[in-house]
Specification:
Helix content of chain B: under 10%
Distance between the termini of chain A: 36 Å
Helix content of chain A: under 10%
Structural class of chain A: mainly beta
Strand content of chain B: over 45%
Shape of chain A: globular
Largest interface: A-B, 23 and 27 residues
Number of strands of chain B: 12
Order of helices and strands of chain B: EEEEEEEEEEEE
Order of helices and strands of chain A: EEEEEEEEEEEE
Number of strands of chain A: 12
Shape of chain B: globular
Oligomer: heterodimer
């Protein structure tokens, strides 16, 4: 069964810490995405990548960076975590081309205290 | 800008009944794809159904079907014979089908509760 795996289901970090959220897919997908999900706001795109070492800003990139050194792995980095980054983070991947839809991981609920 | 609107933040339905979730979208493109995703309490986003804009026939997947009205830019999801396991957040999503690699645009979601 194809999978997108997020390394942590729950994470608690302190304000100012550098936080790494890891995402790995085993489907040989070209595209990978990081979303943030908040109640009443739906899913908002943070960053995406169409290829190794390639990254593009989404709608809300401020305070985040990403890394894609290998095709199967896409990391989201919070350089200095803040309480307003407490949220659910969803990773997704897809094949190249618009019609396939995305496969999602099961999410990481991050709390910054 | 392309947008997706789900006007029903919450809905409820009795088990075994039928419910329809609404979705409208705004785009100037003629070629695109529409999706409904389900997110149960387990948080795993699952693709429920997919519609290609150039196909007039409405997509169906078992108890799930859509009513795609291209001129009205409407894409509603009908769930027949609702089951307790259908309790979830449902997200409508759109992606353009043009030459460039676009990204999925999501609505804010509808929380569906199926009551026994």
């Amino acid at each position: 069964d194809v999978k997108v795996t997020q390394s942590s289901r729950y994470l608690v970090k302190r304000t100012g810490e550098k936080v790494f959220l890891e995402c790995v897919q085993d489907m040989d997908h070209e595209n990978m995405f990081w979303y943030r999900q908040d109640p009443g706001l739906g899913l908002r795109l943070i960053y995406f990548s169409y290829d190794v070492k390639m990254k593009e800003k989404g709608d809300i990139p401020e305070g985040y960076s990403v890394s894609r050194e290998k095709k199967e792995r896409f990391s989201l980095i919070l350089e200095s975590a803040s309480t307003n980054q407490t949220s659910m983070y969803l990773c997704a991947s897809s094949l190249w081309g618009q019609g396939y839809g995305y496969t999602f991981g099961s999410g990481t609920r991050l709390t910054v205290v | 800008a392309q947008t997706v609107t789900q006007s029903q933040p919450e809905m409820s339905v009795q088990e075994a009944e039928t419910v329809t979730l609404s979705c409208t979208y705004d785009t100037s493109e003629s070629n695109y794809y529409l999706f409904w995703y389900k997110q149960p309490p387990s948080r795993q986003m699952i693709l429920v159904i997919r519609q290609e804009a150039y196909k007039q026939q409405n997509a169906t997947e078992n108890r799930f079907s859509v009513n795609f009205q291209k001129a009205a830019k409407s894409f509603s999801l009908k769930i027949s014979d609702s089951q307790l396991g259908d309790t979830a957040m449902y997200f409508c999503a759109f992606i353009s089908g043009g030459g460039s690699q676009g990204n999925l645009i999501f609505g804010k979601g509808t929380k569906l509760s199926v009551k026994p």
